[in-house]
Design a protein that fits this description.
By secondary structure, the protein is an all-alpha fold. The protein contains five helices and no strands. The chain has one domain: 434 Repressor (Amino-terminal Domain). The mean pLDDT is 88.
Length: 95
């Protein structure tokens, strides 16, 4: 993977981490364990509290990020497109 691709992916993961943190804060500051529990009940694969922690450090896989998004009711694909544009330096036009 090129340096640019790694940088873009890290930027996208950072934006997801920020958004997921905002969503957790809006839900009475969900802890890693609480978000982990929520993923198991969201008709998606369970992710461990350790994996949730990896989201915050931008080390989680896209699959884990997607699972957290589903659990929180976020549209992963829409956010991915928006965050990709931002990471590439393109302005988002309407949302």
């Amino acid at each position: 993977m090129s340096t640019l691709a790694k940088t873009v992916l890290t930027d996208i993961r950072r934006l997801f981490a920020e958004r997921i943190k905002e969503e957790c804060a809006a839900r009475d500051n969900l802890s890693n364990a609480q978000l982990s529990k929520l993923t198991g009940g969201a008709q998606c694969e369970y992710i461990s509290p350790k994996t949730v922690g990896r989201i915050w450090t931008c080390e989680a896989s896209n699959d884990s990020i997607r699972i957290a998004c589903v659990a929180l009711g976020l549209d992963f694909d829409k956010l991915w497109r928006e965050y990709y544009r931002r990471a590439m330096g393109m302005e988002e036009t309407g949302s």
